[in-house]
Every structure is written in C-alpha cells, then in structure tokens.
Amino acid sequence: MATDMSQDDLDFTKRPSKSEIYDPKVARICFESLGQMEDVQKGAVFFTENQNSDRMYLLELGEVALTRGGKAIDVVKAGEIFGEMAAISQLPRSATATARTACRVVALDGKQFQLAIQRMPEFALMLMNILINRLRLTVTMLSMSKALDASDGARTRRLFDDKLLKGLMVATQHRPPQHCPLNKVIMNEGETGAFMYIVLSGRVAITIKNKLVEWVGPGGIFGEMALVDQSPRAATAVAETDCDLLSINRGDFLNMVKTNPVFAVSLLKAGADRLRDMTALRR
Predict the structure, then answer these.
(1) Res. 154 pLDDT band, cuts 50 70 90
(2) Exposure class string for 29-54: b at 16+ Cβ within 10 A, else e
(3) Comparing C-alpha atoms, which of 148, 86, 117, 130 is closest to residue 228?
(4) CB under 8 Å to 275, separation ≥6 — which residues?
C-alpha cells in the first residue's frame, strides 16, 4: 500500500472492486438472478446526493461517474457495483451517479437485495469484507491526521431487537452469556480476535488509540471485524458498567450469516453506519 494515501483514497462511495476481496462473479450471479436489466442513455442520472433511494447497481457495460458536491470522486467500470451503501444503510445517498457513456446495468431494490443475501450468503460476506477494509483504512487515516480527537463517542446504537436477540441466544445456547464486571477489558486493540460480542445488558466503551469512538448498549455488537477478515482487533473494548455479553466464535458467526439473512443484513448496516461515522470525522 502506498504511503502517500489521500483522503479521497478512503472515500466510502468508491467502488468495492478497489479491494481484492471483490469477486465480480459472485456479484453477477446475485444481480442477474434477481435484478432487472436496464439500458441507460449517456448523461442519465441514476441517483443524486442526499436522495432517499435503495437501489444498487451492477454495471454490465459503459462507465458511470460518481461525484459529491460537484467534485469527481470515482469512475465505475463494467463488472463493478455502485449504490450499495444507501441500499445497506437505508440512509440518503452520499454521492451522485451519472452515466458517462451509454450503459447497461442490473438493478436490485431493497427487497431484492435482502433476497440476494438469503440466497447467496457469500455475497453478504464479500460486502462485509469490503466495508471492514474501508473502515480499517479510514481509521488508519484518522489516526495519522489526529482526526480521532474529534470523536466524543456520543453515538449508541441498538442493532438487534428482542426477537432477534432471543433467536441468537437459542442458536448459541451451547455457550452461556458471560458476565463482565465494571472496568473489565474485554478485548484489546491489536490482538487476535476469536469472538464477536452482543451486549445483553450494560454498556461497553469502544476506543481506538485511547480515543472514545462509540458506546455499545443492549442489542449492540462489537468485535465482529476480526471475525470477518481475521485481522488484528481495530479497537479496545472496556465494560463501562457491569455487563452481560453473548460471545460468538467464527464458526457460529459464519453459520448465522448463511442461515439468518436478517442477522447478515443487520451486520452490514452496522458496518455501513460505523463507516459513515468515521468518515464524517474527516470533514
């Protein structure tokens, strides 16, 4: 990896095939089995910045320009996907996509995307890897620029509702919840990760380079990045109160992704939300 990386190199609107994890064959199977083929004229706009829409696209032919605030940020080539961040996060578009040439695309709407995850869980794992790769790069840049100092950790999310939590506890009943007392270090930045964690009660503080970046409360997760890409932990987690945690190893994790599309989509949304939060610190 080059050391003269710019801020734009880490932009989460960039195409996923920038990563070696992206497999166009997997994307094509998912899109073509469920999506709709469309021919698009040169100059046509697929979506605009801040627009609410949930369609994502596989580009079969042509080129698509991605811009933000009128500034060019990338060009999508044939075989690549775009628009996936809004489809995953259900948040407004972060960029505008315009056909640079006449294009042919296959489009998936939100329901078709969830069905694709159900039919082909390796597509979900591929997208998770892409998001985590971008998140790790973003954290690296934030650390280099001291931008992490701007984080106050104020955001706390609930990822899983009670129904899904109950189902996960049944699926992992061979491993009872663990109790962590106040101030217990649950995981350390840089170490190998064997488990991800779901908070059942209490609150956990997540820090990167000793800077608070997030609180995780009941229904929230942490530690999943190391399970997906099997790289060292990116953050440290400490019990801010007495906590009860559900621990999930890689085998259980992969089985849940394959058998429970709601679990997979929830993890993708968590990754997309974290990436947006981290990216916002750079601005």
Answers:
(1) low
(2) bbbeebbeeeebeeeeebbebeeeeb
(3) 130
(4) 12, 85, 131, 134, 135, 138
Task: Tell me the pLDDT tens digit for each residue of 74-108.
Answer: 899 998 889 988 888 888 898 899 999 999 999 99
Tally the C-alpha atoms within 13 A of residue 61's C-alpha that lie toward its C-beta.
9
DSSP letter string, 119-183: H-HHHHHHHHHHHHHHHHHHHHHHHHHTGGGG-----EE--S-HHHHHHHHHHTTTS--EEE-TT
Q: What residues does 239 pair with on adjacent strands?
A: 204
204-208, strands of its sheet edge to edge: 156-157, 211-216, 204-208, 236-239, 185-187
pTM: 0.74
| Interacting residues of 257 by C-beta distance below 8 A, sequence separation 6+ | 121, 124, 125, 263, 264, 267
Structural contact between residues 48 and 107, judged by C-beta atoms closer than 8 angstroms: no
The tens digit of pLDDT for each residue in 229-278 reads 888 898 999 999 999 999 999 888 888 888 888 888 888 888 888 887 77
Asked if 124 contacts 117 with a C-beta cutoff of 8 angstroms, the reply is: yes
Q: Map tokens 């979900």 to a residue.
A: 124
Per-residue pLDDT band for 282 (boundaries 50, 70, 90) equals low
Distance (Å, whole) CA 160 – CA 169: 12
